[in-house]
Amino acid sequence: MCGFLPDFGQEVVIGSRRPHHRRVPAPPDVELVARIVASTGLSPAEAARVVEDVVAFHAEPVEDYVRRRHAHLKTYGAKNDEIFTRIAEELANRVVAAPGLSERQLRRIVYG
Which residues contact 97 (CB under 8 A, 6 or more apart)? Predict the structure, then answer.
């Protein structure tokens, strides 16, 4: 039986029941936004957006970063050997460095 409304005691579910693991971003730091406004001439709204973009970039999970960079570099013709070496170097130089990952671990993130 297919109806539009649930029977008594059932809940309506729209979309996926899988929980999301993304955090809701906190509002940007007021002092940081003010400093960017003073040093760049951006408006407060533009400076806040820059801060949010940078925080979002650095909050990207390692697995997502590896998959995204691999796909990007592969698109431009790079070979896996150089891709995995480059990604490992990039991860080591991030502001909050990711754990050291071997080429095998990087491959497993990309290919499962």
Answer: 91
Task: Write down the residue that tokens 């990711």 correspond to.
Answer: 98
Residues 27-31: contacts with CB within 8 Å, 24+ apart? 28/52, 28/55
pLDDT tens for residues 65-109?
Answer: 999 999 999 999 999 999 999 999 998 888 766 778 899 999 999
| Cβ–Cβ under 8 Å, residues 33 and 44 | yes
CA atoms of 48 and 46, how far apart (whole Å): 5
Reading the block at residue 52, the tokens are 């949010």
Judge contact between 60 and 23, C-beta under 8 A: no
- The reported pTM is 0.56
